[in-house]
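Human:
Class, as today's exercise, you are to examine the entry below, and be ready to discuss the fold:
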Amino acid sequence: MIADDLRKSNIAEYLLHMWQMESLVRAYNRDIDRIDADIISKMPEQERAAARDWFENIIKMMELENVRDSGHLQINKNVIIRLADLHQELLKSPKFPEYGAEFYKTLPFIVELRAKSGEDKSGEIETCFNALYGTMLLRLQHREVSEGTQQAVKQIARFLSMLARFYKRNEERPIFDDDTDDDERSKLS
């Protein structure tokens, strides 16, 4: 499945994909037969059974976690938590100044977005994902995206891309080990 591949290769793209799948399941009113008829049936035959199982599991989780109409599955919230934890570690570490620099270029956009969000005070990382996902939805609906929003999203995407690279590298080999040398760090930025 696409989700499994993305989870291994790019955690940011994985999360956006999973949010899109949540929205898709909601658009089909959690009706597996409709999803099967419109989506799964168009997949290669050898992938259909696994895809149906996957969608059935997503539907069950959405019902069990009471996120039928809005919100995110706990598995997706956990990704945000892990990314936010890594984000904090990277900011605190003197080993990765390029990460802090990229974050501080992004911070004014995050502050502006959080100010506009009203009661919903998501963390910095979730705010970034909300901005990317919201912009993606606007584009899918062929709605106009302002120049200011496009600039903000471009910087946010650059920042989340860097965070995703650090996440992948940390999954492969912990980046906060004392033996992580300068050559290894340069591969991350």
